[in-house]
Amino acid sequence: MDTSRYYQRTVVKETLYSNRLQEERQLRIYLPPGYNEVLSYPVLYCQDGEQFFNFGRLATSLTAGILDDGLEPAIAVGVDVDTATRTAEYAPEGERHDAYLRFFAEELLPFVEERYPVRRTAGERIAAGDSLGGTVSLHLALAYPHLFGNVLSLSGAFFERTRLQLEEAGDLSQLRIHMLVGLDETEVKTERGTFDFVEANRLTREILLRAGANLTYEEKPGKHLWGFWQQELPAILRLFLQA
Q1: Which range of residues forms the domain containing residue 139?
Q2: How does pLDDT run across 62-73, given as a tens digit for each residue?
Q3: pTM for this one?
Q4: Domain CATH code at residue 28
Q5: InterPro entries annotated for this entry (predicted)?
């Protein structure tokens, strides 16, 4: 099969200055095949934007899904991050975490919505991330349930602070979340220590189910690497964007 047309896509690069973070943030905006400014599109907001596009092959997966698999055309926004401050922004105990959440809600969303025809309801926005990116995506939905109704988590780092916040959140029936974790992720080394991501995701799953969240959950053989997440991403995108 000729796959060359999957690579004929549009990715626009933008720069946004954030008053909340006191720095510029680079964005990658994927525009779907047949993009038309008079239409409106669901929108996928991705943490670790550079990695989602380069290692996750997000644009290729979206284009192939739209052209061949009945995926609803969508816009994707990749938000780049500095690895030096990633934990400080993405981890709930990080010193820049609250500022990052406010940047996302108060600066990033208006910036994108002024320039692109994305839909503006919580049910048409998806926050996506891997590892700590999954964590901060869930915290965005907890902090701003009127803005984010969907979370796509690839091996989310859902540790004690996140689980405690979930326990306190009460009814989460408005939240739709997909969780994927690899069965080989029982001893993942991070800058904060070594963690069992399988146990962390299982415990989080139980809390979400008790809170009434609309949850889909997968455990599959796989390591804490983009090689695993990239293979699973096309099927997960269908869960959120099947036309």
Answers
A1: 4-241
A2: 999 999 999 999
A3: 0.95
A4: 3.40.50.1820
A5: AB_hydrolase_fold, Esterase-like, Mycobacterial_A85_antigen
